[in-house]
Amino acid sequence: MWGGGAGPSLLDTKGHTEFVSSVTFSLDGSRIATGSSDGTAKVWDARSGTPLLDLKGHTGEVWSVAFSPDGSRIATGSRDKTAKVWDARSGASQLELKGHTGMVNSVAFSPDGARIVTGREDWTAKVWSAGPGTP
C-alpha cells in the first residue's frame, strides 16, 4: 500500500505464492482481502499486515474478492467457474455459487448484503442470494 503522494510503502503483505489479482479493504478499514493466481484468498490485518485467514477451496485462480457491507462475509470469484462466500472471521466456506460457463472474474455484494452479483468475460452477470445469514 502507498500513502498519500509518492512516498514509501506503508505495509507489505507477503504470503501468496503467485501474483495477486484482486485486493479490497473491509468497509471499516481494519482488514484487507487479497485474491491470487495461487488459488487462494487471504485476509490481512490492515494496520500490521499480519495474516488472519487463508481461504482455500477454489481449484483455479481467484480473480476477485469482496467484503460484505457489514464485514462478516467475503465473496471470491475464480477461474474454476464458481464464486464462494466465506465467513470473514473463521474462514469457513458458507456457500458455493455455480452456474457460469467460464471464469468468474468479478464479485460484489449489494449494499444490504442480501445479494451477490458475479460477472465473467462472456459479457454476462448473474445476481444470487447471498445465502445463509442474509437479511
3D structure, described in words:
The chain is mostly beta strands. 0% of the residues lie in helices and 49% in strands. It is built from no helices and 11 strands. The protein has strands spanning 20-25, 31-36, 40-45, 51-56, 62-67, 73-78, 82-87, 93-98, 104-109, 115-120, 124-129. It has a 4-stranded antiparallel beta sheet with strand order 1-2-3-4, with no helix packed on it. The relative contact order is 0.15. The mean pLDDT is 88.
Write the layout of secondary structure elements.
Elements: E1 20-25, E2 31-36, E3 40-45, E4 51-56, E5 62-67, E6 73-78, E7 82-87, E8 93-98, E9 104-109, E10 115-120, E11 124-129
Antiparallel strand pairs: 1-2, 2-3, 3-4, 5-6, 6-7, 7-8, 9-10, 10-11
